[in-house]
Structure formats: structure tokens, C-alpha cells
Amino acid sequence: MSIEKILSQATALAVKQLYGADFDAEKIEPQPTRKEFEGNETIVVFPFLRASHKSPEATAQEIGEFLVGNCPAVQKFNVIKGFLNITINPTYWSQVLYGIAGDANYGFKPVTESSPLVMIEYSSPNTNKPLHLGHVRNNLLGFSLSRIMEANGNKVVKTNIVNDRGIHICKSMLAWLKWGNGITPEAAGKKGDHLIGDFYVLFDRHYKEELKQLQQQGLSEEEAEKQSPLMKEAREMLKKWEDGDEQVRQLWAMMNSWVYAGFDETYKRLGVSFDKIYYESQTYLEGKQKVLEGLEKGIFYRKDDGSVWADLTDAGLDHKLLLRSDGTSVYMTQDIGTAKLRYQDFPIDKMIYVVGNEQNYHFQVLSLLLHRLGFKWGKDLIHFSYGMVELPNGKMKSREGTVVDADDLMDEMIETARKMSDDPSRLVGVPDDERADVLRKIGLGALKYFILKVDPRKNMLFNPQESIDFNGNTGPFIQYTYARIRSVLRKANPADLTPTEQPISPSDKEIALIQRIADFDACVRDAGSTYSPALVANYVYDLAKEYNQFYHDHSILREENDDLRRFRLCLSDVVSCLLKRGLWLLGIEVPERM
């Protein structure tokens, strides 16, 4: 049991016995004592004043005296106004450590048959371009969130919706037909997603040139766009696709298969995965059907031009288009269809969509529509809204080919790790046959940590060089701390790796480290309730930093006292386990040697 729970329960008992009032121990939340005051944990006594009918100081004094006399974990206390600062018995901290050391799953709740099922959607790529830096943040957030939710005792299903239809797909297809000369990924020596992305950029280049020529002939920009032969061909191709034209469908299937192979390679390298993939081409018709059902039930209405709408003004929103006048669907229709299929496939208790904050309004609307259509989780769906990733030179644009491809980014990160490892002090003792894999773990660990340590709701500026620094709040710093601890443990006498049974009175530095260790459980809970991998990222950094301060000030292997040496080895082992467990929640691998 954590020290916080012990103090909460003991304080609730104190209030009951001193003042005859029942107080929920769950609502008593001890906090770490501020550094300028003496003590380890602080309890705010203001909520108890109604029961005590005494001043804050007198109430805190009485509760403190009760705790010293009745709670073995409490050594002494002091009162600052309405704040009860508690000092824990030093030997108690060693028992806290040994208890955590004996729990192989500390911080993780078990998943049972009765656990709620949480579905998390992330990635959502288009099949007209490769994954880029923005997708990287999306995938890393979604995958980390899936692990955090599982660690909180939920069944988790990871899903992806692939946008594999629409005018943007036809642009790439048309460009390949016009200027591709039958090129394939194998012949080009390129991943399929990169090849198709090239044709998407090529279409835009020709399209802009065409608009320029039309405007030179005296047309306005709007008129030029309407009369563009290229765009007309793309729209005709989309119509043929929707009509099931065999040739267009075959071309579409072939080019999409190239892209999927490329996506799979990138996902595997990035270390993310999915339990179920849905495709817009398979869900948009389901959405149309569901909208028409809603129309029959009077949930939606049809305008004179034949288009179908939802009136959301009673919820403070506006009217939302669901089917165009020609019967074609919009993105909202597709999302309704996908929800229908998912609800058929899985008994969803909670649905989390990992999508950028530019879609905040979309998910407000989707939540209302799904609720009105009868999906039990619709009203409570979670839009995990995150900020955009920007580069030092500005925003990315796929049409203009100014994106940072995920594959190129991973290559760059691993190469940066290789260059930094040329320092003679780096990767000492790493065998040559392990070196490439260690560099991969460092490079990708730097990328993942730099992105995940930022509050998801905030926009962020990605700086590759800063992310891979071996000092400071970075992935490599935490990985290096883990590798350092594993090195210490490898050098230890195996007999010393069994914790001592003797109570130890730790130093202040050791107590601070054990307190940080004990915070892991609450960190995982908070990360799950707030949907924030950043809490885990910053926890493991703080833990690594705290350990390095301990390592600098205390001898471990050369400590002459047997019990103290074994205690410090146990302390080191627990820190390494929690660093590895925390980084696992972020999808980051740890090298045993660095």
C-alpha cells in the first residue's frame, strides 16, 4: 500500500475518532511537502474544520498527534497554518521500496474479462501520399495512449481508418496514367507510398501551370478552376470509380496496394500496430444507409434540392450537411458508417479518436449525431485533440511536396545518433554486432520522446538536433540512465541482488528517490484519466534525473555495509524496471548497453 493511502486512511480514522465525523479516505489526498518546509507529505486540514469546530492550527495539531500515536509510518509532524506536514519514519521507506520491488506489475492494473473495452482510432492516412511528421505525432500519441489505457485495466482495440477514396486519390491515379509510363515501385526503386506521393505532387504542379495559362487567357481564378481540363478529368475518374468502372477500380486497387505495402513498412519501423483496419471505401455506403435510416425516423431532414441535413441548433450548433444533392457522401457520413461497423464488430464501452485540433468542431457534431442515431457511447466519445507539429522553417504542405516524410525523418534520427556516437565516450562496451540496433533504438527513442513529452494539446516545434542530446530532458538521457543501471547490476555479486530483510534508514536523497518511485502508480492513473502520455514522459525524466543525483552522491558496489549495498542495488534495480516500464508505455525501446 502506498504511503498516500496509508496516510489517507489514518487521517480519516483520526477525524472519525477525534470529531465523530465520517470522511471518505479517497477524498483525502496527501501531497509531497514543499521543499522549503520540513516533512515528506502534507495534508490540508481545512475540509475537517466543520467537524472539529476549531482553528486550522488546532485541528492540524490534534490530527498530527493522533497519527504519531496510531500510525507506525509517521515519525513526527509540524503545522504551518492549515497544513499538516508529516515526516515518515525513515525505516518505513525501505519497506515501501521492498514492496514495490516484489510487485512485477507495479503501476499496471490487470485486464480481466469484465474490463471495459476502449477503442482507439489513430493514424488515418490518405492513400495519395506517404506518412509524414504530422502522422508520426498522431501514431505515437495513439499507440502510447493504447498502452496507457491497457495499463489502467482496460481492454483495448487499436483501429485505423484509411482514407482510400475521393478526389485526392484520383489526382494521383490520373497523374500516373498521364506521366507514369507504367512505372512500378520495383522499377523505380522506391517504396510504393513515396512513388504515389510523387504523382500527387506532379498533378498539383501541372494543375497550377494549367490555371496560370487559363488566367493568362483572361479567365478569373475561379473560372480557371471550373474550366481546368485536368480537374475535370479527375472528377470524371471519381465518378467512374463510384459507378464501379472496372478499369478505374483495377488501377485504384493496384496503386493502393503499393501504398499499403509502404505504410506497413513505416508502421513496423515506427513500432506501432493496429488490431483492425477499416477503409473508407467500405464504410461510406454504410454511412449513407445509416443517414437514410435517420431521415426515415425524422432525425434528419431533406432540402428541396435533395440534400440531407441534421439540425443541431438545439445544441447550440448549426445545420450539418450529411448527403449532397446528388446523393454522394461527405466525411461525416463516412465517420457514421465506420462507427456503425465498429459497433457491430466490438462491444465498445468508450471510443477515443486521435485527431488533430483542426477537427474539434467535426467531433462535436459527430458525437451528437451518433448519440441521436442510438450509439450508446456516441455522446461520450473522446476526441483526443492534439496540436500540430511545425518545423523551424514553417508548416508542411503535401501538395507542394514540402512535407517531412516519416521514413526520411527516421533515417535522419538514426544518422544523427550515429554521428553523436562517434564521441569516444559513447557506446563504450557495445559489441559491433549490436551497434546498429542500439543506434536505431537511440534515434527512434529520441524522436518518440521529444514528441511525446509535450502536452498533446499544444502545437510543437520539432528540432531533431535538440531531441537527441544525451543531456537534459531527452530520450537518450533516460535510455543512458537505464543502461548505466544495468551495467551496475551486471557487475554486482549475484548474492547482493537479493534485497536485505533488515530495515534500512535511507538518506534524504534515497528517500526522495523512493518517493519518486512510489509516484509511478499515480502517474499511470493520471495519464489514463487525462489521456496524456506527456505525464509518463516527464515522470521517467524526473526519475532518471533523481537517480543520477543519487548515483553521484552514493557508493553502490563499493559500499562496505552489506545490508546497505543490497538496499542500494535493490533501489537501482527498481528504478531501471520503472524506467523501462515507463518508456514501454511510450513505445520506446531501451538498450541494455550504451
Low-confidence stretches: 395-401
Termini distance? 35 Å
Question: Gyration radius, to the nearest Å?
Answer: 29 Å
CATH topology of the largest domain: Isoleucyl-tRNA Synthetase, Domain 1
The strand line-up of the biggest sheet is 7-6-5-11-12
What amount of the residues lies in strands?
5-15%
Q: Please report the total strand number as a whole number.
A: 14
Coarse morphology: globular
TL;DR?
With about 600 residues, the protein is α/β, with parallel strands linked by helices. The chain contains 22 helices and 14 strands.
Describe the overall structure:
By secondary structure, this protein is an alpha/beta fold. The protein folds into four domains: 3-88, Arginyl tRNA synthetase N-terminal domain (Gyrase A, domain 2); 164-272, no CATH class; 275-404, HUPs (Rossmann fold); 406-585, Isoleucyl-tRNA Synthetase, Domain 1 (Orthogonal Bundle), CATH 1.10.730. Helix content is 55%, strand content 11%. The strands form four sheets. It has a five-stranded parallel sheet, sandwiched between helices. Strands 1-2-4-3 form a four-stranded antiparallel sheet. α4 (90-101) crosses α19, α18 runs antiparallel to α22 and α19 (508-518) runs parallel beside α22 (562-585). The protein is globular and about 90 Å long.
Keywords:
4-stranded antiparallel sheet, alpha/beta, Rossmann fold, 594 residues, 5-stranded parallel sheet, single chain, 22 helices, 14 strands, Gyrase A, domain 2, 4 domains, globular
